[in-house]
Amino acid sequence: MQTMLPSAPCLGGGGKINSLSWKLLVAGRILLVEDDPQIGDYIARGFAEEGFTVDRAANGRDGLFLATDSQFDVVVLDRMLPGMDGLSVLKALRAAEVETPVLVLSALGSTDDRVAGLTAGADDYLGKPFSFAELFARVQALMRRGSGRQKAQDTVLRCADLELDRLTRQVKRGARKITLQPREFRLLEYMLLHQGEVVTRTMLLEAVWDYHFDPGTNVIDVHISRLRRKIDDGEEQALFHTVRGAGYRMAAD
Amino acid sequence: MFARAMRQRRLSPTMLRLVAAVFVLQLLSSAAAIFFLRTQMLDVVRADREDQVIDVRDDLLAAFYSGGRGALADFIRDQRGSVADPGVFVTLAGGGAPTLTSNIDFVPAITPGPRPQAVLVRRGDSATEQDALVLASTLPDGARLTVGLMGASERRFNLAFAAAIGLTIAVAVALALVSALVLGLAISSRTHEIAKAAEELAAGNFGMRLAEGQSGDGFDHLRLQMNQMAERIASLVAELGAVSGALAHDLRSPVTRLSAAIDTALARVDEPGAVEALQAARADADGLRAMLETALEISRLEGGAVQDRRVQLDLAAVAADMVELYEPLAEQSGVTLALDLSPAWIMADRELISRALANAIDNALKYGGDAITVRTHAAEGEALLEVADNGPGIAPEDRPRVVERFVRLDNARTRPGGGLGLSMVNAVARLHRGRLELGEAHGGGLAVTLHLPA
Question: Which residue has the higher pLDDT, B152 or B102?
């Protein structure tokens, strides 16, 4: 698989990011454990188109065997599986000290089920129905968590000429000082920690506001566009990018 | 909570009537017992006195048979033995000798008989006649021996009885009152126990069961029936859960596939018309997904199939957070979103309360006017969370309807939404044992108020 630098997207040359560069940057190996053949096909095809290698298992036992046997960047695990259910697979994996990031996918999308999934050792939880863009963004986030952890310790986060100082809570774009409200600061901080990645509205709502439901309206979009005006207005280079059908991405390309 | 407990402790009119009835019955039975006892005791006293009279007569007869008339006369004159008792009087008349009396001035006119008879006699300087038991016997020599006993002891018994009866009545009244209250409280507590079970059922705890007794009384019957009812409800709810679970699985997967298919298509077409159509389809698929999610969430909430994640929280803080989330959207839509917060602490699930509040604010943004106020305050025993707008409001007759699932009023049909917003708010309120109130705001708009028990 490709290795990449944490700040790789920001180092990319100008212009629109194309799918080829995505493939080079993030492609990896995914294990998909899903019993519904159609959903499995869609997910697998989606990842394949983004340049991922996808291994598939249609039941829990095979999934557990594959996951313990070979190295994957991320395991996408359906919760309701024939033979051995997803949470048991997950517990068995963690008991065997396999630390591969696991995203649990489930038709049981309620908060209770999400909490149960996370307690069982899942790194993320996504309720069905989901959009592929959401799944893709979350898988990417899991793959980059290692570099994100490194970044999480930095006191100053940068993207191009944007600078956010987490100690003094000051934000500068070049020489221009930007005043942010506390929530805007956290929103920008999150975007910078995940720069180069697609961040979905749900991810933002969970991380910045700690809500695990979909308010239905475009509340997050308005917050982003407000922040975007403060950061990008009057600048030559836009750092905020809207990813159609998925969410946002912060990058200097 | 405290006020409620007080209400439960106080006796209701029904209970008061029951307690009063038990009290009166207790009192009546006590009175009956006392008077039965009195009659019995009087009989005993009377028999005792009759025996006493007969004993005196027998003593005198013994004297007569051992020494003849002379010995008897001496016995009477000297007031020997039982004749010495001042309550006893004796007369001996006829038989050819002078009449002899002791403790009395005349010979009572009474016919001889085997048992003493009650008569009225006047003795000495006494002004009134008094009860006496008198026994007359004819001696073998033809003389008549009359032996009497004054009724003083019966009067004394009556006096003693009267003194005792006061105390007895006081004790009986106290006992009747205590037993009535104990019975009342026992019934009340048993009824409360059963009512509490019903309350749990209403709150969605269908696993509750009452301990069934074997005595087969009315309470046991009621408990048994309650348990059977709970079982039936539990099985129905489980069935419903299974159905909605199956529905979830059956509907969610196709919707996921639909979204995925649209995404795949979107990634492959460049023709603007096609992109636009696909994006519209995408938005609808998302709407469908959200509706499905919300409908299932409401089912879960109403079925009580939710883990208890309640913590002590301040509604004001929850409201402030949510308003902060919605404020930019409101501003963009030209709506002012105002806060009027005072602390209101309750035990609640932050996520669910936030979700309910988001639904209420969303509803106000869609159908309300251009000013929304989110208010929290603590009232007597409850915490209130209110979202008021200055829109057209909802007519009072329509208010109960809009809380139902998928009900949308005519003016809302053209707007996006699934008619689930207020149902969700209602479900959250009920899960917290509170209620949703739809009323009129100050400016004539709609006021959505969550009343949550503190």
Answer: B102
CB contact under 8 A, A132 and B306: no
Upstream peptide bond of B396 is cis (omega within 30 degrees of 0): no
Domain finish residue from A107, A125, A146: A146
Radius of gyration of chain A, Cα coordinates, nearest whole angstrom: 19
The answer to whether the Cβ–Cβ distance between B329 and A226 falls below 8 Å is: no
Is the pLDDT reported for residue A187 higher than 70? yes
| pLDDT at position B380 | 85
Tell me whether residues A132 and B259 touch, CB distance under 8 A. yes
Contact residues on chain A for B332, CB-CB shorter than 8 A: 222
- Write the residue in A42, A129, A215 that is nearest to B289 by C-beta: A129
Do B290 and B333 have their domain in common? Answer: no
Q: In what order do the strands lie in the sheet with A102-106?
A: A53-57, A29-33, A74-78, A102-106, A124-127
Tell me the one-letter amino acid at B424. M
* Overall domain count for chain B: 3
The CATH number that applies at residue A72 is 3.40.50.2300
Domain of A13, in residue numbers: 8-146
Same domain membership, residue A66 and residue A129: yes
Chain A interface includes B325 (CB < 8 A):
yes
Residues B340 and B401 in one domain: yes
pLDDT score recorded for residue B241: 62
- Nearest-CA distance from B197 to chain A in Å? 26
Q: Structural domain of residue B334, as residue ranges?
A: 311-453
Interface of B with A in 255-284 (CB under 8 A): 255-261, 263-264, 266-267, 279, 282
pLDDT single digits (tens) B215-224:
778 888 888 8
Burial profile B102-117: b = 16 or more Cβ within 10 angstroms, e = fewer: bbbeebbebeeeeebb
Domain of residue A228, CATH code = 1.10.10.10
Query: How many Cβ atoms from other residues are within 10 Å of residue A22's Cβ?
Result: 18
Report which DSSP code applies to B211. Answer: P
Specify the number of domains making up chain A: 2
CA distance B279 to B275: 6
d(CA B333, CA B310): 34
Q: What angle do CA B407, B326, A235 make, to 5 degrees?
A: 135
Percentages helix, strand, coil for chain A, rounded to the nearest 5? Answer: 45, 20, 35
Residue A180 lies in a domain: yes
Which of A146, A170, A199 marks a domain boundary? A146
